[in-house]
Amino acid sequence: MLQFVIVLCLGIMSVAMLLNLLRLLKGPDLPDRILALDTLYINAIALIILLGLYLGSDLFFEAALLIAVMGFVGTVAIAKHLLRGDIIE
User: Which residue, 72, 73, 70, 48, is CA-closest to 60?
Assistant: First the structure.
């Protein structure tokens, strides 16, 4: 039963990632695209964790942690660039 639910959630998260990609490419302005990119990496983390649960491997959880750290740093860097024009003061 759990395997069926994980496969269903993998499908739902894949559809969510496709919709985020559409918003990233079509977004009317820059903040919408940044928000879509932020949501896209969060969905990628969820997808990787679900895949790790499905396959029973711990390696996927470490990859999800790396994506989370890189996504957070990227979001902070983009926000600083939008506010001040440069990233490093």
Answer: 48
In this predicted structure, the answer to whether residue 87 has a pLDDT above a threshold of 80 is no
Sign for the CA dihedral angle at 66, 69, 73, 74 comes to positive
Q: Distance between CA atoms of 88 and 80, rounded to whole angstroms?
A: 9
> For residue 38, is it left (φ>0), alpha (ψ between -120 and 50) or beta?
alpha
- 39 Cβ neighbours under 8 A, 6+ residues apart: 20
Q: Whole-prediction pTM value?
A: 0.85
User: What's the token pair of residue 71?
Assistant: 């996504």
Of 49, 76, 79, 51, nearest in space to 64 by CA? 49
| Structural domain contains residue 6 | yes
> Which residue range is the domain that position 28 belongs to?
2-84
Please tell me the total count of domains within the chain: 1
Cα separation values, 57 from 48, 52, 61, 66, Å: 11, 5, 8, 16
